[in-house]
Amino acid sequence: MSLHVDHVGGAGVPLLFIHGWGMHSGMWGDVLVRLADQFAVSAVDLPGHGYSNRMQDTDLNGLPRTTKESSSKLSREGCGVETETLDTMVDQLSIQFSGPLTVCGWSLGGQVALRWAMRYPEQVGRLVLVSSTPCFVQQTGWSCAMAAQTLADFSAALQQDYAATLRRFLALQLRGSEKERELLPALRRSLMSRGEPDLAALQTGLEILNDADLRADLPGIHQRTLVISGDRDTLTPLPASQYIVDRMPDARLATIAGAAHAPFLSHTEEFVKRMAEFSHE
């Protein structure tokens, strides 16, 4: 399977953007063009999002697996469906891109970026994690996250009316932002600009958000990392970003005041500035 990639251009170190749940690469707005004078900028549509085909049950060469292989893939002892799905996304990215890259992941895309850096460290030179978290759902001793029931309600609503569920999710991403009213209509238009998302891909993304827990992996991810967080983010609260920084060997935090879950849209100037400063460190 080939993933759709927007090659914006530019010179310098390759910089790849990975979007969040239910979105596509067009959601990055003006940021891509603004950074093209310092990076060779690209943005990818994850499987089933934007212009990328739905992720099929394929091997690493893109060939269909046999029924026996598929069944084995989902039932291997000690390897749940959610981990295999996240790893399959990462494996597809590793095939399509050579390194070293600076990988910028937003929200769910941040988890993809972290897992990529862990599985293929030679391909990921640096990381930028935007409004992300190692674990989206509250656990024992982990309160800076979404309640499990809230995510379960999203999953149930998705089956009933996925369009309304996506609109609700967009509203949550901007809630509390200084430019909430201004950005929400534009964000909704941008979401559908590449057609309707694949329902199965949306459900898979929710399963990853519900089950993936990368907290124990953080100390082993050694790439220099910039963590960007809005201080009004209710989906991935600021303490989750601080947790990442405290446990990764070479990470620092950049907090954007007045921003919620999409700081690159609400505070584009500051976001670009932070990225540029990071590139020159």
Structure description:
The longest helix has 16 residues, at 81-96. Helix 3 (81-96) crosses helix 4. The protein contains eleven helices and seven strands. It is globular. Helix 9 (238-247) links the parallel strand 6 and strand 7 (251-256). It has 281 residues and is an alpha/beta fold.
Strand content: 5-15%
Q: What is the class in the CATH system? A: Alpha Beta
What integer is the average pLDDT? 85
Give the proportion of residues in helices. Answer: 40-55%
Number of beta strands = 7
Kindly report how far apart the N and C termini lie. 36 Å
Q: What key phrases describe this protein's structure?
A:
281 residues, alpha/beta, Rossmann fold, 7-stranded mixed sheet, 11 helices, 7 strands
The gist of it:
The chain has 281 residues and is of the alpha/beta class. It is 42% helix and 15% strand. The protein has a single domain (5-279), classed as Alpha/Beta hydrolase fold, catalytic domain (Rossmann fold), CATH 3.40.50.1820.
Note the topology.
Layout: E1 5-9, E2 14-18, H1 31-35, E3 40-44, H2 67-75, H3 81-96, E4 101-106, H4 108-119, E5 124-130, H5 148-160, H6 162-174, H7 180-191, H8 199-211, E6 224-230, H9 238-247, E7 251-256, H10 263-266, H11 268-279
Parallel strand pairs: 2-3, 2-4, 4-5, 5-6, 6-7
Antiparallel strand pairs: 1-3
Helix pairs in contact: 3-4, 3-8, 5-6, 5-8, 6-7
